[in-house]
Amino acid sequence: MEVAREAEHRFGKKVSWGVECGTERALFTHVAAPVMTRLRQPERQVLDTLVAAGVARSRSDALAWCVRLVQRHTDDWLGDLRDSLEQVQRVRAQGPDTDPGDAPGDDDGE
Questions:
Q1: Which of 1, 39, 69, 82 has its CA 20 to 30 A from that of 98?
Q2: What is the mean pLDDT of each run of 10 residues along the chain (110 residues)?
Q3: Sequence-distant (≥ 6) Cβ neighbours of residue 16 within 8 angstroms
Q4: Where does residue 93 fall: left (phi above 0), alpha (psi -120 to 50 degrees), or beta otherwise?
């Protein structure tokens, strides 16, 4: 608690804190910040479905649930993305050599 108080004083912001012991984790405080987002109808329907199914109490809770789900799968997704980028680099390396001055959008008026 003392560390949190010192951090709040130093940074002038509220600080969330908790403890973790092995696989157990307990948050004693948390700061929920409102976030504005613009969603199209199909995206809102996803949130409404989660609310109707009882997964979340509100659209806000449903959106937080979605973010946590993505967060759990981030490592797998980023690994797949890195693999894809490596494949793109391999394909580019197999392509014709180009002069760096001939890059698309490099218009020097000549």
A1: 82
A2: 82 80 80 80 95 94 90 83 92 80 58
A3: 4, 27, 29, 30, 31
A4: alpha
Q: Residue 104 carries which side chain, given as an amino acid letter? A: P
The pLDDT value given to residue 51: 95
Both tokens of residue 96? 């014709």
Torsion on CA atoms 36, 64, 48, 43, rounded to nearest 10: 60
| Angle, vertex CA 10, rays to CA 1 and CA 27, nearest 5 | 30
Instruction: Give me the pLDDT at residue 59, please.
Output: 93
| 3-state SS, residue 21 | strand
Structure-block tokens of residue 56: 């979340």
Tokens (6 digits) for 13: 């912001």
